[in-house]
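Now for a specimen:

…
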Amino acid sequence: MSTFIADWLNILLRWAHLVVGITWIGTSFYFIALDLSLRAREKMTPGVFGTAWQVHGGGFYHVEKFTVAPEFLPEDLQWFKWDAYLTWVTGFGLLITQYYFNASAYLIDQSILPMRPSEAILISVLSLVGGWFLYDWLCRSRIGQNTPLLATIVFVGIVGAAYGFTHVFSGRGAFIHVGALVGTIMACNVFMIIVPNQRKIVGALMKGEEPDGKYGKIGKQRSVHNNYLTLPVLLMMVSNHYPLLTGHSNSWLIVALILIIGAMVRHFINRHEAGDHFKEIGWTLPVAAIGLMIAIVMTAPRTDPAVAGMEVSDTEVMTIVGKHCVMCHADHPAHEGFDEPPKGVVLTSVDKLRQFGPVVEMQAVKSNTMPLGNETGMTEEERQQLGAWIAAQ
């Protein structure tokens, strides 16, 4: 595939992914907030669990939620599903375009685990499928009836998957696969559980039968799971832009912190919308803040003792850059994956290297993000020499 076509495909998929993702997240957040705002009132339609009065855009809205389902359904019943389906489809399309088509550059790091692109892609697909089935089995088991226990096991499972990914894929590949795994679980919750259960309820009503309330409860459980996983997965999906996350030696621990921070913030928002007093939910914010501070400290820049006192000449550093960087970062890249230098970074001269020094230091010295997939086999000693030269400028 030509770089021109690949770039346009990437842009269009990314744009579509954002649009449908925003729609899915918006409806998810809205319905959870709506559910938590329901109140029992003196006069309600028979079979109604609670109602909510809302105002938006200059209009007033009165919403009712039935305990199970109404006695009859209108012809214009609206389903909320395609935004979830399309979010996953466009996301997987991006995974294929960005990581599968360029597996040797973006997905594989030979210094972590030597393998062929086909092997990396197979591991990727199997991990996404296997992750869903394991999560679904947990929810259907007795463990699924114990919310704190289930939440703990799912948390440990995602962190365990992150640990495994960091020992199989590149830093960027590992982080994006945590996001893809969680996103697959969320989309499958809609496709495999929530919507089918709603169809069972609708089917019973159409037959004149009383629907089983368990289907609504199961759907609600999975919907809540999706709600709490949304904030962490959003950060995972943009992580490839931040080597301080993906290039950290213990990035799987950062994943654990992101899960905690996101869940705490989401819980605070949910319970605030439910009307809980701040004294009852305020503890979540300090927990999130502590998690954030730990993540910041973990990723803070550190001076490598091996670099101190090391003298590297312009000629030596340009030899390193010429060997590992210029194939992509030139006015006319020689790398088949690029028609233009990534992010406009050109490193063909000492002055250019000095100009982009801080970027190079973050990407290739303080993390192993560059070269992509370490295709050129850049050594730790060369990274130290590059870092010493940049520090001396």
Residues 73-299 form one domain.
